[in-house]
Design a protein that fits this description.
This protein has 463 residues and is of the alpha/beta class. Helix content is 38%, strand content 7%. Helix 7 (156-163) links the parallel strand 5 and strand 6 (174-176).
């Protein structure tokens, strides 16, 4: 046998495979990209990619307004359409972008169904009314899930007063406004917005990060009371380091701590006697109250999502069958049922002979936590044939429930119990997958029927 270690024998060590997720990540941070010239370099690099990228990271450069205008003009053109159709995350942290660049970015976001995360941290934004109005309108007409404006200290209280009342996006789930110069004057506007008062609707935000400002204990308490009274969607709130500057020494703690036990109606009640000073006791009370509110919202969110999925499971075969078996004159949508003729003896399941009103009432017993509006959305979804998976996908075993496997990871294709089985027992394939199809489809359904948070009935005083 020939010794492979001998000098005459040459062999090559195979190169480590580059994961597909890394190849689709366009990362050119800290490369001194400046202005229009820097943007043109980025455009040349993007043109060299045969396929569209999914994540674009250009942190810590100096593109500025002119460079951003050049870059997003390319992304909005036919030449850059392959990237616009695939890029789901853009990170432009610390690029010296001002309001002119913000307007251009907003126009790119408007109507964009692919972009999910936009990081605009540590730039030079100011509370320009035109720019903020343009941004809010773009978010309201997009599918963006995350927006970060952290570190734009020039925004201040005027940003909250001008931007939040215009923001009514149903898709935005996460908003970062850390260290943007907020004071206690912003607390009422934030409290009004998260309860839906300024938008005449429901705030769908799930994560709010507002640390590193100067809201003070009074401002934070006002926001917490608003969450308690009228917000069931927020499941993560960060308000760290919000002490007021140059506060007097803390007063002695009260002899008896304020009561934080649930009220007789079952609601959590914040301590009405929170100390007004910036003392450790006051902040500890806020932290405990926030923890209880987040636990409350998370519990009801899980209940709502589970009941929505269960209700779809039962409503799909029953309502789809009922709708297909009714005559054209009686096939009204479940949300507005028409009077049904007297039931006639049938050889099938007796449920189908019932009036529509009774059918929907019986189905509602499977989801008592959902609001009437949420149940109607599920009924309409379940009875609509257009929401069924396509026949081509159904014939291919498990395509809906499988993860999108990263082909560069050999362990995902030739090894382990996950081979060919997608997400067994509800466990994701983890680093060997780019996206879990099962979780993705579930999230799309919950968002489509508005079942991402608990919605109490407003006319019920106990709620």
């Amino acid at each position: 046998m020939k010794d492979i270690s001998s000098p005459g024998h040459s062999f090559s060590i195979p190169k480590a495979s580059v994961p597909l997720s890394s190849r689709l990540h366009f990362n050119h941070s800290d490369e001194g990209l400046h202005g229009v010239a820097g943007a043109q370099k980025v455009i040349l690099l993007l043109n060299s990619h045969r396929n569209g990228v999914t994540k674009m990271t250009l942190n810590h450069n100096s593109l500025g307004d002119d460079g951003v205008c050049q870059l997003f003009a390319y992304l909005s053109s036919s030449e850059g359409s392959k990237h616009r159709a695939t890029v789901s995350e853009i990170n432009l942290t610390r690029n010296g972008i001002g309001c002119k660049g913000l307007k251009v970015i907003a126009e790119y976001v408007r109507g964009n169904d692919v972009l999910r995360a936009l990081w605009l941290t540590n730039n030079d934004f100011t509370p320009d009314p035109a720019a903020l109005s343009c941004l809010a309108n773009a978010l309201n007409n997009s599918r963006l899930h995350l927006l970060s404006l952290t570190g734009n200290s020039g925004l201040g209280d005027a940003f909250v007063a001008r931007f939040l009342p215009l923001l009514r996006s149903r898709s935005l789930q996460e908003l970062h406004i850390n260290t943007i110069g907020l004071t206690p004057r912003s607390a009422p506007a934030i409290a009004t917005w998260i309860t839906g008062g300024s938008t005449h609707g429901v705030c769908h935000l799930q994560t709010l990060k507002c640390s590193g400002n100067s809201l003070g204990v009074r401002g934070v308490s006002k926001i917490l009371r608003a969450i308690e009274r009228g917000n069931w969607a927020l499941t993560k709130v960060e308000v760290y380091a919000n002490q007021l500057p140059d506060t007097p020494p803390p007063s002695p703690p009260p002899l008896s701590p304020p009561s934080t036990s649930p009220s007789s109606s079952g609601q959590l009640s914040l301590a009405r006697s929170l100390v007004a000073s910036e003392s450790d006791d006051a902040w500890n009370d806020c932290n405990r109250a926030l923890h209880r509110l987040i636990m409350r919202n998370q519990y009801w969110k899980r209940r709502v999502e589970k009941e929505a999925l269960d209700l779809l499971k039962y409503a799909r075969p029953l309502l789809m069958r009922s709708k297909s078996s009714t005559s054209p004159s009686a096939s009204s949508p479940p949300s507005h049922p028409s009077p049904s003729p007297p039931p006639t003896p049938t050889m099938g399941f007796p449920f189908f002979a019932l009036p529509n009103e009774l059918k929907l009432y019986i189905l509602s017993l499977f989801a008592p936590t959902l609001s009437p509006t949420q149940r109607v959305h599920i009924y309409n979804y379940a009875s609509d044939p257009a929401t069924l998976p396509s026949l081509t996908q159904t014939l291919r075993r498990g395509i809906i429930k499988q993860c999108l496997v990263d082909p560069s990871c050999l362990s995902a294709t030739i090894e382990g119990p996950n081979y060919g089985s997608g997400c067994p027992a509800g466990k994701c394939m983890g680093p060997n997958s780019l996206v879990c199809r099962k979780e993705e489809e579930r999230a799309k359904f919950l968002e489509a029927v508005g079942c991402t948070a608990y919605e109490p009935e407003l006319d019920d005083p106990a709620k």
